[in-house]
Amino acid sequence: AKQKGRNNYQVYTPAIGDKALERMVLENNLYKALQRAEFLLHYQPQLDINTGKIVGMEALIRWQSVEKGLIRPDQFIPVAEETGLIFQIGEWVLRTACEQNKLWQQAGLPPIRVAVNLSARQFQQQDLVKTIAKVLHETGLKPEYLEIEITESIAIQDVDFTIAVLHTLRSMGIHISMDDFGIGYSSLWSLKRFPLDKLKIDRLFIHDFISHPKDAAIITAIVDLGHALNLKLIAEGVETAEQLKFLRSINCDGIQGYFFSPPVTAQAATEILNNQTKT
Ligand code: C2E
Ligand code: CA
Ligand code: CA
Ligand code: CA
């Protein structure tokens, strides 16, 4: 009675919707993209607000697809996270960013940090610390020149394990930065529990603080709170001179955004760094 024909099977299978099909195609293409080396990193400068010097570069992934051109991370990172491909992609990002930073140092440029985004899913990986240590060893980059950007979403994983991992990374000399700060569910709780070096104020607050007076108060409070906890503050999404002026007036430490530069190719980032040393 268990012997059912192939044709019967199909009756119990829900029809594959367009969305699901699209996802399967994307998943398959992401896998191929890894093998065909279709990913690349763009870099966006992070500046010291007082000296105007570049102190870091954030690595941001792009997918150069043969069919669809340059694809932004929001369109494929979530699928990579769901499927687990993020582990391989994440390691590739880490290695490429560390290699690039090492190249900049070997070219004689003033040393800066390279900031790499890690997704929450990567913190479920038992060997995350090992992987990072291996990449640093292989690329020869000193840990103090690596910064890791996390978001509050790591709090929904095994929190104690995550905190232990962060402590280990920090004890190695790696900097830890809390990305998109202020928009999570439990910002203050995160501040209490996570070992951190820096807060990145979400660009949502920076974006229209001029038309929303509340935002200015919130940004000021975040900066003061961060400083009271011995953290550095960087504002992301800084697009105007007015925003910069305000951030300087409240003693924010760093800025990142289109006002200075959008994310650019490794080659263009190298030129920006070269030009800076000339002036
Ligand atoms: P994020 O980490 O918050 O990165 C900042 C995003 O803001 C970037 O978008 C950047 O291009 C954009 N941005 C920078 N300056 C400005 C500005 O002045 N104005 C505005 N409106 N936007 C600005 P992007 O590159 O599309 O990245 C989107 C998100 O994808 C990132 O947000 C990050 O969460 C994720 N992501 C990027 N690369 C990686 C990666 O290698 N691994 C993981 N796990 N996630 C990544
Ligand atoms: Ca980031
Ligand atoms: Ca951010
Ligand atoms: Ca974000």
Structure, explained:
The protein is an alpha/beta fold and 279 residues long. The chain has helices at 6-12, 18-35, 77-83, 86-106, 128-139, 159-172, 187-193, 203-207, 213-228, 241-249, 266-278, and strands at 39-48, 54-65, 69-71, 113-117, 146-150, 175-181, 198-201, 232-235, 254-255. The protein is globular. The N and C termini lie far apart (82 Å). Residues 1-13 have low confidence and may be disordered. Bound molecules: ligand C2E and calcium ion (3 copies).
Essential attributes:
11 helices, EAL domain-containing protein, 9 strands, alpha/beta, eight-stranded mixed β-barrel, binds ligand C2E, disordered N terminus, 19% strand, binds calcium ion, single chain
